[in-house]
Design brief:
Elements lengths: L11 E9 L5 E6 L9 E3 L6 H13 L8 E6 L8 E10 L2 H5 L8 E7 L4 H4 L2 H16 L3 E4 L2 E2 L6
Parallel strand pairs: 1-5, 4-7
Antiparallel strand pairs: 1-3, 2-6, 4-5, 7-8
């Protein structure tokens, strides 16, 4: 089979938001369906854009409707069990005390949240997610959007 005969990639997409507190710490949530921490977000549904999915997932998971800002990272991150994935992380900016007081876990997908410094992420997240979240935090600080593969920036090197 030549490259022209190979089927095209059929990646699933997911989108999430990176929220911060006033101390510039990142919000991580505790899902009820897996043991590891995560950021708020989920899979893109048919007919939905990644941005729309992010807004919807934040509303469903946290019960709030904060403004969601620009794209921070797009990460091509195939998973051995889930197949090809493209993951989008958007800037949720600072969630102040008023917004945090309105958080509810109505859909029961999450049970808690807390804020962590970027320096703590390697200790509390799985490796590929820690790389993605740290890259998103740097992109936010620099006012950039970054393309990643497996959570690592691609710096224009030849393949």
């Amino acid at each position: 089979m030549s490259d022209h005969d190979a089927p095209p990639a059929r990646a699933r997409a997911a989108a999430g938001a990176l929220f911060f507190d006033e101390g510039d710490r990142v919000m991580l949530v505790r899902p009820t369906y897996k043991p590891s921490l995560d950021i708020p977000g989920g899979h893109v549904e048919p007919g939905e854009t990644p941005y729309q999915a992010c807004v919807r997932e934040v509303r469903e998971e946290l019960g709030i409707r904060p403004p969601i800002g620009r794209l921070l990272v797009a990460d091509w991150a195939p998973h051995p069990e889930l197949g090809e994935l493209i993951l989008f992380v958007f800037d949720g900016d600072v969630l102040g005390p008023e917004a945090r007081a309105r958080i509810t876990f109505a859909d029961h997908e999450l049970s808690a949240y807390d804020f962590y410094s970027v320096d703590e992420l390697d200790d509390v997240l799985i490796e590929r997610l820690a790389r993605r979240v740290k890259a998103a935090a740097v992109a936010r600080d620099l006012g950039e959007t970054v393309y990643l593969e497996h959570g690592r920036p691609i710096l224009g090197e030849a393949v």
